[in-house]
Amino acid sequence: MKKLFTIVILGVVSFCTAQHTVFELIDFGLENSKSMKIQVLADENSQTNLTNSYLNLLPSASISVGAGKTNSLDEGSNTIDSKNAGLNVSKSLQLIDPTFFNIKTSKIAAKNSQIMLQETKKNVTIAIFNKYISVLQIAANLKIAENNYTIQQQVYDVSKIKHQLGNLSDYDLQTSEVNLITQEIQVKELENNYKEIRQALFSYINMEDDGAELQEPEITVSIPKIENYENNNIMMKMNNLRTQKISLFQQKLNLYPMPVISASYNNSATNDIFEADNYEDNVSFGLNVSYDLFDIPTLRNNFVNSQRDLLASELNLRDAIRENKSNIETTLLKIEALESTFELYKKKLKIAGNNLDKAKEQYELGLINITEFERARVDLFSAEITKNNKYYSLLLKQEELNLLLSNNILGKY
Questions:
Q1: What pTM, to 2 d.p., does this model score?
Q2: How far, rounded to the nearest angstrom, does the alpha carbon of residue 82 sit from its chain's CA centroid?
């Protein structure tokens, strides 16, 4: 069963008609991301290396053409002209030919490079999304603070009238003024914070901020039933383990005698190189077995070290799988907790709003003092801010879960 929770994000109030969407900024950021560009180059290199590993299967082939003159130092000797041309093709194969192992490891490296490119894209997307949400969150909090300042200003105006009529003490008037100043400070701090976070967003994506409004996306937060998933980082660790096993097998074979089969073909001629009949064919085959006695201790030690490295990698892989599973379970619990507390804050906000309306009426009638009214105002302000923050925490946790599962971020990236 999936629990669906639709959240409409409150946006920035702007006089601009133009708007930026989260997808627009992410696309622009990905296109200009240094990390993405570097990883694309790395992926192209890995594909080239894979191609080269296959090309290494080709035999060695060469064509040669030459000409020369030989002069004797003896008087009366003739100058001897010489010409030669030929084609030579040769290939040797070992029982543990590095070419075949190189092809296997190059395939794995190319696959890992593709996975790393996907993971880099997801990480850059998450970074942009987090900054985008932070801007919306501060903007929404700023709007709440401004509304709260308006309420506080109205209360202060009422307090001055009551003070002039002798119905309010100097202390209570000063308390009301202090509360107004405090609220004004909160507004100023949020304004500065908003400017800093917005600047950080556009700086990160290398885009000039035109002041356009950030559009309010509609995002569905869901808690899926986790069954089978493939985390990119774990997949890369598993591929690296496969590479280590291939290398270990190659090292093991190096401990045994190494047979080498070789074959060559040569077609060459001297002097009359433009006459086809002058060319002679030569074909040769060979089988050689070698065993380097003094390298065996070193090779054996390297093999044992590689076995230890493989064991350490297997332990790291198991630990990474456990950690990723734990992070997923923790994130799911946080999403569930945020959903439930969000619903509670919705109820609290409604009650706090009604309480503030009553407190405002009672304060104007002189039935409660400024401290009691301030308590009701703070309750409403706190509930609004907290409820608003729950919105954005839910959105961020949803995409954090997608990253852990290596699902598409925002259903697209």
A1: 0.82
A2: 65
